[in-house]
Amino acid sequence: MADLVLSPIADATIAKVISSATKQINLAVSWKAELERLHSKLNMIHTVLQEVESKQVEGPAVKLWLKKLRDVARDAEDVLDEAVYERLKQEVQTQKQMMKVCLCFTFFNPFIFRLQMANKIKNLIASVDEINEEANQFGLQFRLATREPRSNPQTTYSSPGYCPTRVIGREDDVSKIVDLLIDPNNEESLSVISVVGMGGLGKTTLAKSVQNHEKIVRNFGKTMFICVSEDFDVNKILKEMLESLTKKGCSIQNQATMVGEIQDLLKNENYLLILDDVWNEEPLKWEALRGCLLEINKNKVSRVVVTTRSEKVASIMGTLRKHMYPLQGLDDKQCWSIIEQRAFGGSSVPNLELEAIGRQIANKCRGVPLVANVIGASLRNRRDRGEWASVKNNFDARSSLEDDSKTWAVRVLQLSFDRLPNTTLKQCFAFCSIFPKDWEIEKEMLIQLWMAEGFFQPAPRSSMEDIGNKYFSDLLSYSLFLEEKRDSTGKIKSCKMHDLIHDLAISNSKSETLMLKAGSESNIAHVQHLNLIDAGEMVPTNFVEVARKLHSLFLEGDFLCKMPDSFKRLRILSFGNWRANIKQLPTWIGKMKHLRYLDISRTDIKKLPQFIMKLYSLQTLRFMYCFSIEKQPEGVENLVSLRHIYFSEKSCVPLKIGRLKDLQTLQLFVVSLQEGSRIEELGCLSQLGGELRICDLEHVENYSEAEKAKLSEKIELHKLRLEWADRNTEECNHDEDVLAGLKPPPNLRNLTIECYGGEKCPSWMEPSLSESFSLNNLVGLKILKCEKLKSMPIMIGLSSLQQLRIQNCLELTRIGDGAFAFPVSLRQLRIWSCPRLETIGESISTLTCLEELHVFRCEDLRPIPSVNGLSSLKKLTIQFCNSVVSLPSGLSSCTALKELTMDGCPNLISIFEDLKDLHSMVELNIVNCENLSIPEESFSCLICLEYLGVGGFSKELEEFPYLNSIHHLHASLQELRLYGWEKLMYLPPQIQHLASLRKLNICDFNQVEALPEWLGSLLSLQSLEISNCAKLKYLPSAQAMQRLSKLQNLLIIDCRELQGICEKKKTGLEWFKISHVPNIQIDFKPIQ
């Protein structure tokens, strides 16, 4: 097996060297003849390798021969790389000389270099001759004259195509786990449910399905999904919980601080925490995390779902036997359904013969969906009976009843690896073993790493990035990658590998790749790609010797800064996951001629060192979150091979970046008047793609200057943000001209315009006025803080627009009226803080795809247009709109409406009768609408309502109105928030019949002195919050409070009379009434 693992690696390396040699032949002069001889002999070796693969020639001698061949190929690769580097160096020096209009002395001696290169190539030819001679010993014959050469593997094979799959066979499991999580009889404040099963059964997929279940969304205010894996680090878990809640990175290291932050973010909401893929068998680690969760858990009900392969792990984490959920395998029929779906993508099986073989394969999958998924994907678009039969026979040969489940799965999954269509794709997959298990792999970064390793070269009509994207999609299609995240436009951002797939990658890269943790011992003599985790200042044994051979080095440690120049072959160097106090980079980095990928993110360097500017082969440079950089980098124009540059701070924008003609990624550009930072720097960067943010556009004077950025020609650009600085309005005279000149490319999918000072939008935003140009692909549009903007563009022609957000446009008076109609594709419309907005046009009624309408702080807005016919509308929110007098008509036609909020609309008078027809309503908020009148029977038909916030009505009323029909919600309503006012003397008695109520919030009942006795009839109540009730002194009787046996959380805020009594802990009658409640907080401070 080891021979066959080495063979594709050697084959891919040889193919890469042949491609490089071909290019050099066309460029070389002095050593062209030698290169042609080397090229010919490498082609012969390539043919021999194909025979080794096709005949599956094995044995110790072949293994040794393959290793020698691989080493010679790498030597050849290094020599050719060096030639490229010296050529690039000459080009840079020549360019500098031309710019200085003088000839400067250089230490580079072309004659000596040519002589050295010729000698190196001759030595390589001798080594290749020796390799060819040894091949004869294995009976391998050269048939170059008769054998068809293998076609370019990068372009000839047919991709199976990525097809997202639905979850099969787990519907009952999801329902049962959801029922366990929302079980009203479970009175524990912190309860653990463990899903236990072997690898590949789909525990992670099941947990995600549970997280997204509608009942979970309704019952838990927040859900957090944390992938734990083998490293059960409490601080890391807390950090990821915090990041999950804030949706951004976290730099906090202190545990107590993180716990406090999580408490503040959760407030009083119940939460679900999913800990995926847990391996921890140390009770103390779980107890440490449990202590933190209990601290967080004050005044909350929380549930923890654990997925693990071990019952011991589940037991250690405090799982009760009734909460242990052993996940079973699928039946053979379900496995066949997965294979059928992956192989045929929803089409019917072409013939009964294939179905019979497929069912036989399904019967051998042992109920493991991962195996069925991967095997099915490897057969996608395959219709030949022989191929299916071959997979079945190989399946039989690799299965053994003696194998444990993990060994069996990896042996069977090897079938999918073997069936990958070319050696390059195999090499790309095997390289992924460099990442830790459960690592979220950023797609763009992975493709750039493949490029840096030279796994593929550009084709005639495809860039390296195009080929890398295709390979990524193929590995996704073969189910070797699992889709993890997409951006707002639907583009895949990252992926993960299942644990067993990761094991498969390791088994196919053991001769190349190693991930080494601090304190662990491993033989690294053969390693080409090394990932040192938590290395600190530890230097692995024999590292200096191995350093000379390394191609890739990822490290979390700073010992490298103290090492001598040992890295002769590095293509990849990454400090990117290390947060150490590295203030200075080692100077030998500037001598690495082969380096193509450099990540120095999160270091504390104060400037980009000049020696980095000598890395002429560098393709990718990352220095994200380098907050200490004080000066704009200079000399970046020397990095003539640079294609991708990443930085996050404005101070890091390089000067003269416009000279990098091949640059494809530049996410931030700051315009200034300084030479090398003007807007025209963007003009030459025709290949820019992805996203681009352009700041400080006030430094652009006019249309012609803006036009020099040539944004419209950057067809690969998908996300664009145009920003001006906050200024006085009189300083915005040129903004209209400038924005007109910044016409984006037609393929743009997201556009944000911020702090623009013009009164109108440019014609390129109005397709009807610009027949030769349209933004037909635009999905998202944000217009923010455009304070002088008086009119919106004609948007009806933006046929793909789904999200529109208009915010802080202080002069805007009309939207969507007449010619300014909305595009029918719109799904989300948010209009915030436009105080002079008077009208939202009737064209809104044509938006049959609209799912959310949110209007906030539009004080002059009077009528809300009819929503009649908006059958897709799910969420309608009107907040702090002082002039609105009625809800929009046509609500009864909004059959999908689930959330309705009317808040802070003091002149709202009536809610139409059709409110009671909204049978799908789940959440309703009617708050601080002082003059509102609600029909008495409004609640009678809202049979699905689970959340109700109501109150803040006329201050003249002495009793709470409109609740006479609320008893109809006794089976559905789970959370109620009541907002009082000054004259109310008591709580509305109608709520005492709400038998399913779990959470009650009482706010602003300032005249109420005692809570009613009937409160004890709310037997399902788990959480009670009382706030801003200044005169409240007494709780219901001890007997009534004792009946609330499920009450877990009591929060008292700003109730000075009551909290003064309750704070006298263990004394006084009021304390006795609540002493049985596990979690009590007064002004957010726990007292029990």
Could you characterize what this model shows?
By secondary structure, this protein is an alpha/beta fold. The protein is 30% helix and 16% strand. It has 26 helices and 36 strands. The strands form five sheets. It has an 18-stranded mixed sheet, covered by helices on one side. Strand 3, helix 10 (283-296) and strand 4 (302-308) form a beta-alpha-beta unit. Helix 9 (255-266) crosses helix 10 (283-296) and helix 13 (352-363) packs parallel to helix 15. The radius of gyration is 34 Å and the shape is globular. The chain starts with a helix and ends with a strand. The model is unreliable at 1-6, 101-108 and 141-156 (pLDDT under 50).
Layout of SSEs?
Layout: H1 2-27, H2 32-55, H3 60-100, H4 110-135, H5 171-181, E1 190-196, H6 203-211, H7 214-219, E2 222-229, H8 234-246, H9 255-266, E3 271-278, H10 283-296, E4 302-308, H11 311-316, E5 324-326, H12 332-344, H13 352-363, H14 369-378, H15 385-398, H16 405-418, H17 423-431, E6 441-442, H18 443-452, H19 464-477, E7 482-486, E8 492-496, H20 499-507, E9 513-517, E10 529-536, H21 543-547, E11 552-557, E12 572-574, E13 597-599, E14 620-622, E15 644-646, E16 665-666, E17 668-670, E18 689-695, H22 703-707, E19 716-723, H23 735-741, E20 750-754, E21 780-784, E22 803-807, E23 814-815, E24 828-832, E25 839-840, E26 852-856, E27 875-879, E28 899-903, E29 923-927, E30 947-951, E31 975-979, E32 999-1003, E33 1023-1027, H24 1038-1043, E34 1049-1053, H25 1056-1062, H26 1069-1074, E35 1079-1082, E36 1085-1086
